Amino acid sequence: MRSASICLLLGCIDVEKKVVHLQLFGHCLFMDGKRIEYRGEEALKEIERMTIMPDEIQKDTLKKILTKNGETEYLKKYMGVSRDISDFKSYVPVVTYKSFRPYIQRIMNGEDSSLLTGDPITEMLSSSGTSGGEPKLVPSIAEDLNRRTFFYNLILPIINQYVPGLDDGKAMCLYFVRTERSAPCGLPIRSVLTGYYKSKHFKCRVRIPFHDDTSPDPVILCNDINQSMYCQLLAGLVHRQQVCRLGAIFASAFLRSVSFLEQNWVNFCDDIRTGTLDPSITDPECRSSMMAILSFPNPTLAKEVEEICGQTSWKGILWRLWPRAKYIDAVLTGSMAQYIPALEFYTEGKIPLVSTMYASSECYFGVNLKPFCAPEDVSYTLVPNMGFFEFIPLGENGTLVMDIGKDEEVPKRKLVDLAKVKVGCYYELVVTNFSGLYRYRMGDVLQVTGFHNRAPQFRFICRRSVVLSVDSDKTSEEDLHKSVTVAKKLLEPYDALLAEYTTYADTSSLPGHYVLFWEIVYHNLVTQVDASVLQECCIAVEEKLDYVYRRCRTYDKSVGPLEIRVVKSGTFLALMDLFISQGGSISQYKTPRCITSASALELLNANVEASFFSPRYPTWINAVQF
Ligand code: AMP
After folding, report:
1. Residue 460: CB within 6 Å of ligand 1?
2. What's a single GO MF annotation on this record (predicted)?
3. Measured by CB atoms within 10 angstroms of the end CB, which terminus of the chain is less buried, N or C?
């Protein structure tokens, strides 16, 4: 066997076999006290090993969590000195964020991490879920970065089984960070991805094979999302003939970048043609890293891009611009499924769409072992050493029954272990992680579709009680109702009343936006509500929606202005007739607060009398109350 290896600071690459041992600053990556020596084929073997014995690995994972965190105030309260799995299952309650919030607030205010975790908390992750209108903050420990790296490293070997040769090209993966803040105790508060991209794990990721990204790191790390997007797309265009995969974390972010490209391609062509960078890019690190890429004027490439982008239809633009792209990696399940048609339009069906992973701030959960299946058939296999997973049953034989309320106490005996879930059944996922969440209800509803070896595979069904979502916003029926209740008061001075309403997320244009269908009744026929009042109703709804919605709208600009479409009198009766004609029960009929069926949407749109948009951005400040 050939022994000549090039040892880099970043990793050891055996030139002949192109296998990589992940090393960070000369040290191997450790997880749960075990050294992870990672190689492409070894990742696949590891998946096989873990899926053959998920039950044993789950028990082992829970034991490790209890050993590490047994001394915490939280666990001692329920388990005393015990570290037994059976005591954990008997005494630790199944809870929502509300139960952890007081502990997290105390830690934010300077109390010790040992309230929740054995290891010091290193960052607070702000998730896209909210509680009481504020983003949920989730503790994270240093070792979580190793765990996330381990998880990410499983993905490409899986894909490489189906599409070899990925290491011969570059990846245009559009990654973005958000600005971070500090808690009173000094801990950084940031999104899980921001934490990851700023870590040495990301900085020192092994670049060969697989990780030859088109975007230079300083561009990814730029806090200004517009400058970052500009530079990432420009770098992707410069390397267009070498790009073999495209992606972003979520489909919404990928499509947003496509629409940014649509608005800026003329500038991109100018930059490429002249070998200079648009003056709107002012961030010094972005400028210097991009100037290394735009090292010479390239009129030939500029002309190619111009010819492609200048066509009247953008159908198939993605394969035309990136002809060697073998797939697009972005989450397309759950609320992201609404973006499949747009992506199919831009790819013309010529670049496969791949949803590779299911993850959250709380824990990284599962990988898609059949990445090239149709987007609607995607299932995720939960990786059993990432956390301890339990399941609240929500119905069998394809019937989903949400009989346990969102905040209701769940009887502990109801919970089912990972290895005991049944095909066809629905469950809400409950997670116990290494960093201080115990039997925490994720709110995600999953359905078991089958098994890989003995490990169950899950289809992501929905986020519990979320009715509207365009990007990372997640609006529940309750939030929607509260917002509409405030807004409809603005109609009262005009003797007008909101008789009925429903909504849908319109993603037919980018960025997507919320649409509210309103049926208004007047007490007298003389007065009419004028346009400015209905515009004020739009902004009143937005002002009352939660922090993440307002951030997406005002800061990220990933959600467009909210729209109210006023429908003719009698429209909601016609809607009821439609649902009943499709088999609904008249006595149980309730107006759905979110419309997904095409026929219902067609009916509503056919009855629109006028539409109004929010006239300004809702208030949003980058601060969370502690
Ligand atoms: P966050 O808390 O902001 O990290 O968001 C995590 C949530 O995003 C999960 O709990 C899911 O509701 C959703 N999510 C993450 N990955 C996927 C996926 N592959 N498919 C559908 N939804 C997902």
Report:
1. yes
2. acid-amino acid ligase activity
3. N
Question: What's the pLDDT band for 410 if we cut at 50, 70, 90?
Answer: confident
Instruction: Quote the CA–CA distance of 326 and 305 in Å, as a whole number.
Output: 19
CA end-to-end distance (rounded Å), the chain: 59
Chain position carrying tokens 């490790």: 64
In whole angstroms, give the CA distance from residue 608 to residue 600.
13
* Residue of minimum CA distance from atom 19 in ligand 1: 358
Give the contacts of 473 (CB within 8 A, at least 6 positions apart): 128, 545, 546, 548, 549, 552, 559
The response to whether residue 129 sits with its C-beta less than 6 Å from ligand 1 reads yes
The average pLDDT across 604-623 equals 92
What per-residue confidence (pLDDT) applies to 518?
97
Name which of 234, 221, 296 is nearest 269 in CA terms.
234
Question: In this structure, which residue's CA is closest to atom 21 in ligand 1?
Answer: 334
Q: Residue 227 above 80 pLDDT?
A: yes
State which ligand 1 atom lies nearest to the alpha carbon of 466: 12
User: Ligand 1: distance of its center to the CA of 8 in Å?
Assistant: 35
Pairing of strands 353-354, 328-331: parallel
Closest Cα to atom 5, ligand 1: which residue? 360
Cα-Cα-Cα-Cα dihedral of 14, 20, 22, 27, to 10°? -10
Min mean pLDDT across 206-220, 286-300, 316-330, 424-438 is at 206-220
Closest atom of ligand 1 relative to the 361 alpha carbon:
4
